[in-house]
Q: What sequence folds into this?
């Protein structure tokens, strides 16, 4: 899967998982978003906030409107 494609670069793999998580967060697939955020390893505060707000749809929509998810 992803580990094979990146050839053992753990940092790149975690960044890619975080990007997958943010995409699924943005389109509303929160279960998949949480899956990818867990594999990203909670790199920073932003990912932790995305993970916990994925359980609350009204907060997720507010964050998408207020902040740039990809940026």
A:
């Amino acid at each position: 899967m992803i580990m094979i494609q990146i050839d053992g670069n753990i940092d790149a793999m975690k960044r890619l998982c975080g990007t997958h998580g943010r995409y699924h967060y943005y389109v509303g697939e929160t279960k998949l978003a949480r899956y990818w955020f867990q594999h990203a390893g909670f790199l920073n505060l932003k990912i932790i906030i995305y993970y916990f707000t994925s359980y609350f749809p009204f907060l997720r929509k507010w964050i998408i409107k207020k902040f740039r998810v990809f940026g």
